[in-house]
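Example record

The entry below shows one chain as it appears in the dataset: sequence first, then C-alpha cells.
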Amino acid sequence: MTVVSALVLVAALVLVWAGLAKAARPHGTARALRAAGLPLHPQFVRAVAVLELAVGAAVAGTSDRVAVAAMAVSYAGFTLFVAVALRKGSVLSSCGCFGAADAPPTPGHVLVNAAFATVAGVAAVAETTPALAGFWRHPAQGIALALVAIVATGLVVLALTRLPALSAASRSS
C-alpha cells in the first residue's frame, strides 16, 4: 500500500462522514448554499449527501478509478465553493460540511479540500491498490490501517470544525 492509497482512504472516510452528517441534517448546508446565492432545497442537499456517501464508500472499499475520479471532482467542487465564498467575502457562519453549524469555512478548508482533490486525481490516473485490499489476507495490518485511518479522519474533521471556532474564540478574548 502506498501513501497515496492511505490518503485516498482518509479522504473517502471524510466524504462518508460528511455525507452521513448532511443526509441526517441537510439544513446547515442548504443555509450555506443560500448565503452563497445558491437557493437549493434541503432535500437536494440530502440527495447529494447520499451520493457523497456512496462515492466515499465505493472508494474506501474498492478504490475503483471511476469512484476515485468522482471523489476528486467532489473535492474540487468543494474547494471551488469555499474559495469563491471566501474570495467574495460571503458571510458563511458555517459551510455545513458536516451537517451542522460546525464552523465558518476558512482557508484551511480550501487547503484540505484541494489536497484531497489532488490526491484523488493522482490516484484516479495512477495504478493504485485499494487501501483495504489486503484487509482479509493480513487482518492485523488491515485492522491497524483501519484504526489509523479512522483516527486520521477524526483529526481532519476536528481540524475543519473546531480549530476555526477555537481560533475565533481566542481572537475575541
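Notes for this example: The chain has one domain: 3-172. Residues 3-172 form one domain.
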